[in-house]
Amino acid sequence: MTENVSGVAVRATRVWEDTRQRVDLIRWLLFNLVCAGGSLGLAWLGPVVPLPAPVRGVGFILAALVLPMATLLVPMLGLRKVPRRKRKMAWQLVFPVIAGVALGVFGHAAGDHIALADRGEWVDAVVVSKEDAGTNHCDLRTTDGRAISPSLSQGDGCRDSVRKGDELRVRYDPEGVAGPTADRSRDSYGGMFMALFVTAVLMGTWGSVRQSTWDRQYGGR
């Protein structure tokens, strides 16, 4: 009789532990989906909508800094049973931080491309000044005197060979949100976004589940 009761207790314990692991998996999967999707979505929406400058700035900080760091800090803060001096981080949690930052940065660049495709205009522009301190930036005006904002970056056509007074054919955003470009080709970000998103979600979920399991088991050590 005692053996039967003991066996039932062991099976109940295993079922309970399996259930908790499934719950951990689901909640951390949802958490990392929200963080990775938020990093990409907030950065992308800023130039595409376009959002007001202060809102875009806050959105970009959330996308490229706050949400990626949350994928590391939230699982770490969940360690309640482990003494502070003995806490450690699952190595998997490095990946969602890096991937989240990349999703924010490249998501903004992809939003710029979409914004230019939707509302951009091709114009002849004159270089009114050039800053070449490390990375080139060219200030432009249209040939009829309208200022173009923001400035043209080195990667979008402000090359070393460009000089003040040169004329360039550029596509610019009349809203002054997306950066202008002299490049007629459009980069495809789809494959890179998919790889970054999957990496952030899978590695973040894996690392977070490990943190939760370690915290539950610590009291029994």
Largest sheet properties: 4 strands, antiparallel
Q: What fraction strand?
A: 5-15%
Q: Helical stretch count?
A: 4
Q: What is the N-to-C succession of helices and strands?
A: HHHEEEEH
Mean pLDDT: 88
Low-confidence stretches: none
Helix/strand/pairing category: alpha+beta
Q: Helix coverage percent of residues?
A: 55-70%
* Whole-angstrom Rg: 25 Å
* N-end to C-end Cα span: 30 Å
Strand tally is: 4
Strand order in the sheet with the most strands: 3-2-1-4
Which word captures the global form?
A: elongated
Description:
There is one protein chain. The chain has 221 residues and is an alpha+beta fold. The protein has helices spanning 2-48, 53-77, 94-119, 190-218; strands at 121-131, 137-142, 147-153, 167-172. It has a four-stranded antiparallel sheet with strand order 3-2-1-4, with no helix packed on it. Helix 1 (2-48) runs antiparallel to helix 2 (53-77), helix 1 (2-48) runs antiparallel to helix 4 and helix 2 (53-77) runs antiparallel to helix 3. The longest helix has 47 residues, at 2-48. It is elongated and about 80 Å long. The two termini are 30 Å apart. 32% of the residues are buried. The model has no long low-confidence stretch (mean pLDDT 88).
Quick synopsis:
By secondary structure, the chain is of the alpha+beta class. It contains 4 helices and 4 strands; from the N terminus they run αααββββα.
